[in-house]
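Query structure, 89 tokens:
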């Protein structure tokens, strides 16, 4: 692959357009389209604000209780791995 110099690289980057623009002849502004855009923007803004408020409002609540049952037994499981030499034949 051929290396490009700085000017050629900048030219390639400027010409790169992943989302090509629609010609103005095909565009039509309407009140309905503006209304949909405003409603969508408002909905997104409300959702962002509510998520930020939920994040800032939520707190961790730690609650400890004393176990009053003296006769219960605590079950403890222990997984052990023992390093032993294997006998080879």
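Result returned for the query:
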């Amino acid at each position: 692959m051929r290396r490009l110099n700085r000017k050629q690289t900048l030219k390639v980057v400027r010409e790169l357009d992943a989302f090509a623009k629609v010609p103005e002849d095909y565009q039509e502004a309407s009140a309905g389209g503006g209304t949909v855009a405003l409603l969508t923007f408002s909905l997104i803004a409300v959702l962002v604000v509510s998520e930020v408020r939920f994040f800032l409002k939520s707190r961790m609540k730690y609650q400890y209780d004393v176990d009053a049952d003296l006769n219960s037994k605590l079950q403890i499981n222990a997984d052990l791995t023992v390093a032993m030499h294997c006998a080879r034949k």
